Amino acid sequence: MKLSKQFPLNALRVFEAVGRLGSFTRAGEELGMTQTAVSYQIKLLEDNIGETLFLRKPRQIELTDTGARLLPKVSEAFGLMVDAVASARHASGETLEIHSIPTFATQWLAKHLGSFQLDHSNIAVRLLRVNKMTDFARDGADIAIRWGDGPWPGLVSHQLIRATFTPMLSPKLADSIGGVHQPSDLMKLPIISPDDHWWKEWFSAAGVQNLALKGNSMNTFEAQDLEASAAIAGQGVAIISPFFFREELASGRLLQPFPLACAAHAPIWMVYPHARRNSPKIRAFQTWIDRTLGNDEMAATLPPPLAPPLPIPQA
């Protein structure tokens, strides 16, 4: 018997959307269907299975135990079908969309992506800097680069690197106080993003207590590359990751006055939906980024994390 005769495939597609979005109305908007049509498809599927899939409550719906068991399998199946069709097409214009934390995107990924595209000329890359957690069901991303305490449910979470952090400033700003010779000298200078918990952790490791950074406060920025730009401009001292700013250090635009660098407790990850784990373009990118980071001397010499772990700032 044909698959379409055994159960309604379109109803499964509607079920997946309703279960993922938690709403008949929102599922209808996504699928271009009326709420009545959505309800009808769900009823068809429930009649076919012989079980109720959703509990209808005032102003909300909730998956039954049967629905909760069915949803992840249906979601994975549709993901596999999408990947199968994409693989069959072998489209020369295939696009890999990557959502990345800002500093990793600007200071590392954008500088190395050329080699990936040379190796995979059939894959176009769309790279977006993002500060929010990527929702793969809605945001159109194939891969996300994020910094945090993984792994995450439903996602393949592949660890990339664990970055360190240390104070950096412009040589001219250091010269303005006759040089920075000991950690406490930094407190004589304006501090960029003084509320960043990395400051407290680094000064504690350096043996400096009773911090008074508030009085020295400058601007607060949402990403390390913005803090580094402010530091290069002489606006203050930034606490940032040497891994991302080796060129600036080598050129003398930034100065790292002390070798002490603390390790962030959480690593940087590459994540993507489990259902897309066999996607050729994702597998190609993972192989490439592992190899490229592995060849990066700085990535290979990062120290282990410090205890106790602390929450990390947005990169």
What's this model, at a glance?
The protein has 13 helices and ten strands. With 315 residues, the protein is an alpha+beta fold. The C terminus is likely disordered.
Annotation keywords:
single chain; D-Maltodextrin-Binding Protein, domain 2; 5-stranded mixed sheet; 3-stranded antiparallel sheet; elongated; 13 helices; disordered C terminus; Arc Repressor Mutant, subunit A; 3 domains; alpha+beta; 315 residues
Please explain how this structure is put together:
With 315 residues, the protein is an alpha+beta fold. The chain folds into 3 domains: 3-88, Orthogonal Bundle (Arc Repressor Mutant, subunit A), CATH 1.10.10.10; 90-163 and 265-300, D-Maltodextrin-Binding Protein, domain 2; 164-263, D-Maltodextrin-Binding Protein, domain 2 (3-Layer(aba) Sandwich). The protein has helices spanning 3-6, 9-21, 24-31, 35-49, 65-89, 102-119, 136-139, 171-175, 197-205, 224-232, 246-251, 280-294, 297-300, and strands at residues 54-57, 60-63, 94-100, 123-129, 143-147, 155-161, 164-168, 238-240, 262-263, 268-273. Helix 2 packs across helix 4 and helix 2 packs across helix 5 (65-89). The longest helix is centred in the N-terminal third of the chain and has 25 residues, at 65-89. It is elongated and about 80 Å long. The protein starts with a helix and ends in a 15-residue tail after the last helix. The relative contact order is 0.14.
The CATH homologous superfamily name of the largest domain equals Periplasmic binding protein-like II
Q: CATH class of the largest domain, anyone? A: Alpha Beta
Oligomeric assembly = single chain
Strand order of the largest sheet: 4-3-5-10-6
**First-last Cα distance:** 54 Å
